[in-house]
From TrEMBL:
NCBIfam families: HDIG. This is HD-GYP domain-containing protein. Residues 66-98 are annotated as: Disordered. It comes from the Bacteria. Keywords: Membrane, Transmembrane, Transmembrane helix. InterPro entries: Cyclic_di-GMP/3'3'-cGAMP_PDE, HD/PDEase_dom, HD_GYP_dom, HDIG_dom, Sensor-like_sf. Residues 66-78 have a biased composition (Low complexity). Pfam families: HD_5. Residues 251-446 form the HD-GYP domain. CDD domains: HDc (cd00077). SUPFAM superfamilies: HD-domain/PDEase-like, Sensory domain-like. The chain crosses the membrane at residues 204-226. It comes from Cohnella nanjingensis.
């Protein structure tokens, strides 16, 4: 059997490690989620505020879109008209090239305005879509007037339909889809922004590591505290269990010693049966072992064998110690010792299992016994065992009116009565008991037994 202290320590350690890891991961995800939400909300607020506050952005999704993208720099166009004339005169008419230069300058000017404000929030990339999914502005001018990528179409339509921001982590960047509403609250466009959040990630990592260390310290303290509590409690419980076991053992010894004293007193009263209780108990114990009876059942058998004739305490001496045969009236009185014995013991809880021997040890296999006329398997096994042993001891003991029979004569008589008075299976088992062992029981029982308990006696015989 495994050591309970070691098992508890391993289980507790596994629980503490698992709980600590789970708590650390939960803290990391909670902190990360909260920082992502806060960063996203701050970024959205900044973008919306700049859209409402910067005139360069306010018309990007409305009537001023063309001006903001291809030709929003009317002022720049007026400023460059003289250059266009000069180009026509000196360069032979390069108007398209001049228009592209003007458009690049306008885009660059708008880009610088946006970056001046958005760089404060570590926004590295920007795409601004109208409701149709067409890019109206991007840091990369080549993407202007191109549709939203197929891979991003789902996110775009989701934000457009829900009027709510969408954020997702992509490595060191936080990708945001921010809806832009006009004065009436209708979404007129969507800004896709990639914000560098490496600093926030570093903060999350530092906070999570700190919490993990604190959690580990707390878990170790909890582990050692619970382990010490378990060890102290276990030792107290073990000590109390041992004390209770000792107390119960003493109580059982007191009970058994009382039974043995009562049995010895009965044997002393009946001169014909001196040592009888110990012998029939030993014979029954040997036969029960031969039949393979469980140890807890054998304990009940021993108690019942010791007390089988306890009811004879109520039988008058004139009948109990009569040297000759009993007449019918005397036999009727003698038979009452069974009911008197049951009445004496039936209110003692720990002796109730032994009552079946006291009540049934005079029943016969063929149903001709008393007091209930039980037969066959209806007679409890312990009573069947005891009946054989009681008869064997009676036949091999001297009586004033006859001499003891030999072992062989007693076995022959038991075999003759198998199937009528006795259980055939039990008779077969009894015949297998060695003659020397049975004779040893009788020899030991005739010695001084006042200071020998039944627990000391039985190991000597088998």
């Amino acid at each position: 059997m495994s050591n309970p202290y070691r098992s508890f320590t391993l289980i507790l350690a596994a629980f503490v490690v698992f709980f600590g890891i789970a708590l650390s991961f939960a803290a990391y995800f909670l902190i990360s989620g909260q920082i992502v939400r806060d960063t996203s909300d701050i970024t959205r607020s900044a973008v919306e505020r700049h859209f409402s506050g910067l005139p360069q952005l306010s018309g990007l999704f409305g009537e001023g879109t063309a001006a903001a993208s291809d030709g929003s720099a009317h002022a720049a166009h007026g400023q460059t008209r003289q250059d266009e004339h000069a180009g026509h005169a000196g360069m032979g008419g390069s108007a398209p090239a001049t228009a592209d230069a003007a458009s690049d300058a306008a885009h660059e000017a708008l880009k610088q305005v946006i970056r001046t404000h958005f760089d404060l929030y570590q926004i590295q990339e920007v795409q601004m879509y109208d409701r149709n999914g067409t890019i109206q502005f991007s840091y990369d001018r080549s993407r202007i007037h191109t549709p939203v990528a197929d891979a991003d179409r789902r996110e775009f339509e989701r934000v457009l339909a829900s009027d709510d921001m969408l954020s997702e982590k992509q490595g060191s960047f936080l990708r945001l889809w921010i809806p832009i509403a006009d004065a009436s609250g209708h979404v007129v466009g969507i800004v896709e922004a990639k914000r560098d959040w490496s600093a926030q990630k570093d903060n999350i990592l530092r906070i999570s590591l700190t919490m993990a260390l604190l959690t580990a310290a707390g878990m170790f303290a909890l582990f050692f505290g619970l382990r010490q509590l378990f060890l102290r409690s276990s030792r107290i419980i073990e000590r109390q269990t041992e004390e209770l076991g000792d107390l119960l053992a003493r109580i059982h010894r007191t009970y058994d010693e009382s039974l043995q004293a009562l049995s010895s007193a009965l044997d002393s009263r009946d001169n014909e049966t001196q040592g009888h209780s110990y012998r029939v108990t030993a014979y029954s114990w040997l036969l029960a072992k031969e039949l393979g009876m469980r140890s807890d059942q054998m304990e009940t058998l021993i108690r019942g064998a010791l007390l089988h004739d306890v009811g004879k305490i109520g039988i008058p001496d004139a009948i109990l110690r009569k040297e000759g045969p009993l007449d019918d009236m005397e036999w009727a009185i003698m038979r009452t010792h069974v009911s008197m014995g049951v009445h004496m013991l039936e209110h003692i809880d720990f002796l109730k299992p032994a009552l079946e021997i006291v009540r049934c040890h005079h029943e016969r296999w063929d149903g001709g016994g008393y007091p209930m006329g039980l037969s066959g398997e209806g007679i409890p096994l312990k009573a069947r065992i005891f009946a054989i042993c009681d008869s064997y001891d009676a036949m091999t003991s001297d009586r004033p009116y006859r001499s003891a029979r030999t072992h062989e004569e007693a076995i022959a008589e038991l075999r003759r009565c198998a199937g009528t008075q006795f259980c055939p299976t039990c008779i077969e088992a009894f015949q297998r008991l060695p003659k020397g062992t049975l004779e040893k029981v009788r020899r030991l029982s005739q010695q001084e037994m006042h200071n020998v308990s039944i627990e000391q006696f039985l190991p000597q015989v088998g």
